[in-house]
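Q: Structure tokens for this one, please.
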Amino acid sequence: MATTSTPDSSSDLSITVESNPSDSRLSELGIKSWPKWGCPPGKYLLKFDAEETCYLIKGKVKVYPKGSSEFVEFGAGDLVTIPQGLSCTWDVSVSIDKHYKFASSSSSS
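A: Here is the predicted structure, written as tokens:
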């Protein structure tokens, strides 16, 4: 019997990659007003305490979720959403330069 993953599963800590989003999508998100972050090639252990959305201006990385041998690869031109609670290793092969934004921890309006 085939198994399917449900998008609303609380154990689903999957990374979403949107390749080459349109300029209008980037403008709508206000990417250029987001803070910037960069790092040289290397391996980095990271834990995301909040959901992060980032847009890579340059670079290339393979992200290995903790306890998994599988990876998600993304790079320049990709819009990426990393779920809250994900612990992972970033294996950066080309220096990263990105705009990023963390989801608000406040859900009240």
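A few notes: Residues 1-10 have pLDDT under 50 and may be disordered. Helices lie at 23-29.
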